[in-house]
Sequence to fold (899 residues):
Amino acid sequence: MAMQNYISFLLLVCAFGVLANSEFGTGSVAGGNLPRSCVESEKQALLLFKNSLVDDSSSLSSWVGDDCCAWEGIGCDNITNQVTQLEVRNVFLTSKKIHPSLLDLKYLTHLELSISSSQGIQIPEFFGSFKDLIYLNLSNSNFEGWVPQHLGNLSKLQYLDLQTNEDSYQELRMDSIQWLSKLSLLHHLDLSGVNLSSAIDWFSSINMLSKSISVLHLSGCALPSNIPRHLSFINLTSLVSLDLSANRFHASFPSWVLNNTNLEHLFLGSNYFHGLLPESIGSLSALSVLDLADNKFQGTIPLSIANLTSLSQLDLSVTRLSNPFPPNMGNLTELRYLGIAMMGLRGSLPETFCQLKKLEHLDAGGNRLTGQIPECIGNLSNLNDLSLTENSWEGFVSEYHLINLSRLLSFTISSDSNLISNISSEWVPPFQLQVVDMHSLKMGPKFPQWLLTQRNIQYLLLANASISDTIPVSWFSSLFSSLEYVDLGDNDIHGDQLSLISGASNVLTSVDLSNNRLSGKFPAFLCNLTALAYLELSNNNFTGELPRCLGNLTQLNYLVLMNNSLSGNIHFLGSLGSLTYLNLYNNKFSGKLPRTFQNFSQLIAIDLGKNNLSDVLPTWTAEQSQIKYLILRSNNFYGEIPTQLCQHKSLEVLNLADNQITGNIPSCFGNFSAMVRGLITYNFLNYSTRGAKEFEIVDETKGYEQDYTSTLKYLVSIDLSMNNISGEIPKELMDLHGLLNLNLAGNHLSGKIPNEIGKMENLIFLDLSRNELHGPIPHSLSYLNFLSQMNLSFNDLSGRIPSGYQLQTLDDPSIYAGNKQLCGPPILKPCAADTASHSVNDHNEADSDLDSDDEHMWIFAGLGPGFAVGFLGFCFTLHFSNISIHVSILANRILRRYR
Ligand SMILES: *[C@@H]1O[C@H](CO)[C@@H](O)[C@H](O)[C@H]1NC(C)=O
Ligand SMILES: *[C@@H]1O[C@H](CO)[C@@H](O)[C@H](O)[C@H]1NC(C)=O
Ligand SMILES: *[C@@H]1O[C@H](CO)[C@@H](O)[C@H](O)[C@H]1NC(C)=O
Ligand SMILES: *[C@@H]1O[C@H](CO)[C@@H](O)[C@H](O)[C@H]1NC(C)=O
Ligand SMILES: *[C@@H]1O[C@H](CO)[C@@H](O)[C@H](O)[C@H]1NC(C)=O
Ligand SMILES: *[C@@H]1O[C@H](CO)[C@@H](O)[C@H](O)[C@H]1NC(C)=O
Ligand SMILES: *[C@@H]1O[C@H](CO)[C@@H](O)[C@H](O)[C@H]1NC(C)=O
Ligand SMILES: *[C@@H]1O[C@H](CO)[C@@H](O)[C@H](O)[C@H]1NC(C)=O
Fold:
């Protein structure tokens, strides 16, 4: 974010400089000394144009009176009084068309429109008839459709800016840019965001542009993947600023760029550039911005980079370039921004960095840097953003690392090794931080004293920091006016002092105090945090009832109170209509569910398992239901499974186990299309605030660890075990090809196992034990290639146990125990005619109850739809049967410019 601002800042300065030096300023905007009156026909044209606009921001309020040359945004020739300049910003167009009255402004040299409409506007062809136009700027408008080639008639044009608004849904397109070569005086061309994917001739056309082209910005143009490396002849030699970022180039470094010895800004970020960086990059001695981030460049960092002594901004983040750094890096004395994050850097951070005295931003996060952090960093007194996070540092972080950083606003550091913070408790820092991320650092056992001097913290991440202390109540209360995000999870913070905290806040959006030893009543101050969207207090010792005022937090998206001893009613949660995720697993809540839950249209996951809730099963009729995880296991839900449940096409995990459910399994279960398709969209973020979380599923009890990453898209599970469900297993259930887990154990199901069971080709776990199923075991069961746990014990199944394929590996006889009429391997009883003896081998009947709580299957995954409360990190756990899913969504860090 910071960098983007900085880039925009630089560009602004650059554009401003260029404008100031250019010759089009014939008419001074509303600036003449002599009384003038503008040309009547031009005034009428402007008024017609004005009438076609909605001017909510009153930017055209000065467009009254006779002298249109005096109107804001209008400039006139100082001799003829003809309108030469038109600048209109922030207006809204009611139709798709720009009013053609503008055609009457025949002498325009300068035209800038920042205009929007609900539909998207065409660039009018008649713009091509402003024959004197020098400057055309249509950026930050929502123009759409094809850029008319008529603009190629603007033979005097020097500036063409069609940069599209990033948030615009509309898209401008060009299928060829050849006609741009007709603009022989062009020296500033910005087509950023214009879709050029069908302009296959783009590069040869660019090479034919005016030789004087100095600014060429083609960022995010969906340019085709190839770009020539070497050219026999290159026309582009006057470039001062080149931006090819955010395209799809799969190519090596375009070395023709190096012929532009005046180049000041080079942006190649966010492409697939690969290969080595040429050593000759050091000859671009005018370079002040070099952004190569988010590419696949490899090899070592060219030593010649240290020759680029004008550099103020260098970004090599998210590349595969490796250290060592050039020994004379310290020559880059103008450097203000240095991005070396996520490059896989190893070894130590050299002290030459400490010579970069002007450095304001240093991001070295997400590498494998080891050794001690050089103390001299504490003398980079211009730093306002220092990120050393997610490395393997050793030794200590002491006050010397921060000693003179009086401008520091953001400090992020963490380490997967044994980095210890031994900042002296007497030290008073010279800064007031806004962002503190020191997670996974050993900074306890006490809350560090120096931190308590910080009064402006917005983002506080001290998770897993070996803190064993009570909450510093007054400090915490005083932070309420600034704090937006706090994560103190995974420590040993204890006591019931939270109940002493008072104060209110309308900025705090996220609180995570999970995995501590906090006790006492649910902290009532939380009710005063009116903007709270994320609250996680899981794995603490909170007791008693929830305060009713919790129902006031209507912004809450995530409420996770799992694994406490909270009790009482939850009906007042019925007002939390923004909930996406609710987890009350393993508490003592009782009573009924709020009726409104089923209308919560944002709800994606709900886990109320292991409580004493007693109610009929909700029908969940929400029309736009997105619910994916519905987990009600181990409560006292009763009655039949409502068929309305089948309308929830998005359901992926349904766990109603261990309740008192009666009736049949509805045959409409075959309608759970997400399970049929096996199409579940997860976004995986493996770089996160709390460390790179690998995404894994581990079945702990069975003693094996298996990585199901590639099949997770099929993750779906139905667990109806331990109820009083009767009737047959509906055939339709077998249509759920995406199902991984089917657990119907411990019911009164009768009839046969459907022959179609072989269709559930992704099934890994199947438990039909302890029912009243009879008949043969379908042979098609042996087609289930992934089946790794099965239990059919204690039914009335009969006949020969099918063999072959995957069933060969399931050779534990206990999974067939208690079916007196089964025969053949793996059980010892031989089949049919061979013997008459009924030697039942019951000695193998181990209790294969798979419902033990210790059996966990962990899945670290992100949940699809973005949870857009800024830079949040969170994780949650869902439980179902012998599987519990730990879903972790950890959004990107603040101050990281990568999405
Ligand atoms: C009129 O414009 C010309 C050219 O831009 C400029 O040189 C001249 O000083 C201006 N005259 C007045 C009176 O502003
Ligand atoms: C075009 O206008 C926008 C918005 O006013 C401005 O940021 C940009 O620098 C202008 N482009 C040029 C080439 O001057
Ligand atoms: C302007 O360009 C268009 C398309 O390139 C062309 O058809 C038209 O004749 C040109 N108009 C003038 C006045 O040159
Ligand atoms: C260079 O530009 C000129 C005119 O601007 C053009 O005629 C020539 O073909 C261009 N060269 C190449 C290699 O594209
Ligand atoms: C680039 O510059 C070098 C050295 O000045 C020159 O030999 C080469 O021909 C130039 N390349 C192109 C493509 O113009
Ligand atoms: C922290 O540890 C470093 C390295 O051992 C030591 O030089 C420094 O004095 C320690 N600071 C404090 C406050 O203990
Ligand atoms: C906690 O920090 C240690 C290093 O101090 C690290 O090894 C561990 O993975 C961290 N745990 C979590 C849950 O982040
Ligand atoms: C819930 O608490 C129990 C007992 O403290 C613990 O063993 C278990 O790991 C916790 N579950 C989760 C998912 O954290």
In short: The mean pLDDT is 82. Residues 785 and 806 are 5 Å apart (CA to CA). Residues 614-624+632-681+701-831 form a domain with the Leucine-rich repeat, LRR (right-handed beta-alpha superhelix) fold (CATH 3.80.10.10). The chain has five helices and 56 strands.
